[in-house]
Amino acid sequence: MAPRYARMLKVPDLLAVLQQIVRRAMAILSRAPRGSLLLREGDRFVARALVGFDAPPGPGVHMPVAPELAGDGAALAQATPEAVRGSYVVDARAWYRAYLPFALGIGGAVPEGAGMLVAPIQLYGEPVGYLAIEQATLESPDEARRATIEALADTAGHALERHRLYDDKASAAQEIRLFEKLLSAVGTTVALHDLIETIAHGIKSVQLDPDWSTVELWLLEEDSLAPGRGDRRARVYRAPTSEPTTYWQNIRAGADSAARPLGVTVDFRTGHGGQGEGSQRALLDEAIRRRVSGILIAPSNPENAEEAFRQAAEVAIPVVVIDTPPIPGSRAPLYIGTDNVASGRLAAEVMKRLLPGGGVVAALGAVELALGVRERVEGFCAAARGSNLTVLPTLACDWDLEAGTRLATAALEARPDVAGAFGAAADNGPSWGLSARALGRAGDLKVVGFDLMAGTVALLRQGAIHATIVQREHDMGFRAVEVIHRMVTQGLEPTLAELPPSRTLHTGVDCVTLERTPWSTTLSDYLTLDAARRVAVGQGARGPSVAPALEIMLIGLPPPSRSVIEDQVSIPAGSLVGRAIEAGSPLVIDPDEGEARADVALPPAHAGARTAVALPLQARGTVLGALVLSSRRSGACRQGDVSFLVRVAGTVAVGVENARLFRRISERSAALERANEQQAAMLQTIRQLSSPVVPIANGILVMPVVGVMDAERSGNFIESMLRAIGAQRARVVLIDVTGMAVVDASAASQLVKAAQAAALLGAEAVLVGMTPEAAQMMVAQGLDVGAMVTQANLARGFRYALARARRRTTTRR
């Protein structure tokens, strides 16, 4: 590569590099009217950089690699990358007809005899495309100009190689990140709705080429798991288009990782900004009522939360606000979070680098719903003011990706001059990127997003998003728990004395780009660090921790409503999914070809698919269902793609099996708990029935004893007896042991204790119903019932009790 062209590769924008290469090549050939750079994608060429054309080509220009040319085939016989390595000249008209036919109909015919200087572009020694510059004649330029054009083609190859290396690293890092999430879910009571969303968006961010339009999880009904039962039944889970944000998951992970070694329990809740049940105010009231050790909150309405902050301060509960700053003069002593204004300014500085020549910039964000988003836009506009950027009024939206994409598409269609776009929240960057792709402007529209979801990762790799500003949510949660712990253990004022006087801690942001720049972090490095941090948090969860001594309530915002689509289907034995399950191996077909059309049996969501894949979910020799994907691209799934999907399906199968196991354990535990409650109630009834107290005359009670008198039963017996003596004002208690199974030393001791307890309340205990065998055994064992009066049977005991009762009555008179 020529040294003077090396600096072009430092621009973090592949399309800008390729366009710059085309412009420089056109400048080398005098009066070159047009130039293009075409790259091979599968079996087609795609125009990646076009300069000098009067109109944009629309949503992509795709032409076959080896088109049939009528009459001009000889002129392009050598115009395949495999056939040539040096530059050459071909007829310009034939070239346009073959590779860029739209160019012949957008004004200005190609002059007769015009030529096209073509320099092949190579990647890793293999030809992958053309740098093509139109010239006035079919004559070849001099050697120096040809050498310079070829050097520029080499520069394009180096730019592509650099881009491919960074993309491969990002793909590997995102794959590791996906499997880390899946493996984490395997060890928990994972919800199937969360699992399908993780799978669908994760796969799409790792595998870009297949362009999967639908990803589904098919789980066989448990009564149809066994083979050979005809058509099986399955429940289908399909992820929504909008992707759930991981913002609160990251904050919670950071809080948990700080909490464990400190002996802190984090109670994570979410609440809406209104009043009543389920609101943040209700959660604040609960936390204050329970006297938790501290409160972390991202207030949806800081003004409404202030009264609760005052009440918390009055009972010495420290409140730390995160995500959204409190109002000025708040009783919340500290704010920890992102400096949103500074983040917006950083996004504008990045946009200036992407648009060095300036231009019109549009912004999209929930400015009417979130203070943080509004502050980012304000910072962006402030930094752009006075520069060569013209920022249009912000398009207000909510958190819906599809709605945001429609707004972005309409804005780009209404203003074709928009050169840059800022997405001020997590969904907004992908909305701009998807709109740019749909309109054929991917890479041409410079997009700066905010935060990093799986969709953002995919669009960064595809060049539809150029940079994204990522908050450090993990640090936010971690530092908040640490500070509250210090406030509780060391005191509020000493802790605040060590913090900035502004009572604000900004956790900072990262600027993430696919390729390395002096002012950004590469996507692969960021993903690798994030995966390592998640693994460390997971290991910390399994490691030793301090016994919880403090409780902190973390109050966040409820996520936007995103519904996983559920359906119930029958699986014919000869269908795509049925055959994959029966064979226990993956199956890839084109649903639109031959007999496959009748055998697919997929739901309407797969309509128009040209590639369909079914991968069985197998765990411990049992097929639990299938992972089903489809794409509108023909031949979209290669062998390497299948290998990756098989690994995903294997991990998902373990997660599904564990989820079912956890559900069965939970159901069994609930059943055992109900049985234990019933048994406890039954035992209580038996105890009550086994220690009945029967009043038979004024001041006389009878307590029959049936079965064994052990220590536990003795306690219940004595308790019932004393309660009855007090209630009935009894003077004599007849303890009838006729039904006792055994009268041994232990039983005799318990009976003596009962008599002593009765005497303390002024009642006399009389033992009746002693059998001759029991009396003989007690004498043989030397057992003594002390001073207890004994009577042979209940009748004699009753007469004795009546006499005692009368004597006491006479004595009182």
Report on the architecture of this protein.
This protein has 813 residues and is α/β, with parallel strands linked by helices. The strands form 5 sheets. Strands 13, 14, 15, 16, 17, 18, 20 and 21 form an 8-stranded mixed β-sheet that branches. Strand 30 (764-768), helix 22 and strand 31 (789-791) form a beta-alpha-beta unit. Helix 11 (401-414) packs across helix 12. The radius of gyration is 40 Å and the shape is elongated.
Short description:
The chain is an alpha/beta fold and 813 residues long. 44% of the residues lie in helices and 22% in strands.
Share of β-strand residues? 15-25%
Shape by Cα distribution: elongated
Mean pLDDT: 84
| Oligomeric state of the chains present here | single chain
Number of strands: 31
> What is the helix content?
40-55%
Radius of gyration in whole Å, from Cα? 40 Å
Report the end-to-end length measured between terminal Cα atoms. 128 Å
Which blocks of ≥5 consecutive residues have pLDDT under 50? 1-6, 64-83
Largest β-sheet summary = 8 strands, mixed
Task: Please give the count of helices.
Answer: 23
Structural class: alpha/beta
